[in-house]
Fold this protein.
Amino acid sequence: MMQFPEMGLWRDLRDKVKLRVTTVDKDAADVRPRKGSMWDDEDNSKRTSSWGATWRERIRNVLPRGIDNFVTMNDKDVRLMADALWRDILEWAKDDGDSARALTLFTAEPTPNLDGTEAPAVDEWAFVPAADLLLIVAEGVVGITAEGLGAADAKPGHDRLPFADCMLDKKQTRLERDDDDDRDRKDRRRGSRDRGSRDRVLFVLLIDCLDVWASTSAAAFTGETTETIEEQLFQPTLSHQEGPTPDAVKENHAKHWWMLAVLYGGMVVGELVGGDAFGAIFMAMLGGTAVYMVKEGCKNMSMYCLFVFGLMTGFQAVFDFLNICAVLGGRPTETTKTTIDSLHNKETFVTTVIRHPFFDQDQGRKYNVQSAVMLASPIVMLLSCVLAHASYNAYTSSLFPEDE
């Protein structure tokens, strides 16, 4: 050490960084200790500062599971992580005289030109001890071998995340993940029930249309006289019609119905861009019903049709509202990874659930369009129900017999 004082400076800096990792904050909450090897330092394995815990979690999420795969120090996310960790330590150590002196060991020196003058320094640092810092900060987490780096304590099913996502804390911590899994499963089941209710309504409408089409085709083949498809579909409308359509509906409500049809057209486009073809068909059928009622001076806008249209869109508004409430805090996305163990003839399925913000630019256009459609659907359904109710009340009569 007397011949190489630089080694003493580097050793002191390492000890200070390790002390920063293992010194628990006074106001820190109780943190569950993470188990390590039997050969680890017993005292230090149970103490981790909030700063150290944050960086250990980030490092764990960036690296692959060591037993499955390794990455080299040249990996893009590993280099970004090492750079961010180094700059964090620089910011912390610049106010400490001894630590700042140790940092000068890694600074780059200017290279002299051929004429003897000093050339400007291209790089600020000649060398960054990235591997040493990872082993100090994430002791027991990082494993370094001849193959590369890996997360030594990662559990089966562990997937890497981009370093940018880790810096934004998008990855759920292990302590939170177990508590959130049950809530995510409930949200998915609730969303499946809501989508199932809409699919059942659409299925019934399609069956009715096919039944009418089949009966019409059979009558045309036998030469019998039959009503048109529109007359059969809306036969209850014709039988319950109480006089002509009110003037208030023709003059005041018609323009709102046309605007509603345009909204349904936009919903169809949104459903198609979001990848939900079944939802696009459902919205197209509702929009087509609105156009059928309002066309030709609202001659087909009967009380029965308004009643059924308003009832159906009202129920759908409730289902969509419950669905949007379940995912406003974040939309869960899941990925399933299959591992085949041919030695033991075993196949393992690991499902990873990650909750993303309702609108997230990192997830792409399709994800954000789906979120926008989910948000707009209950609004359009509610407007449809309110407009159908207003047009229904414009009639002076009623579908239901009044008690005398």
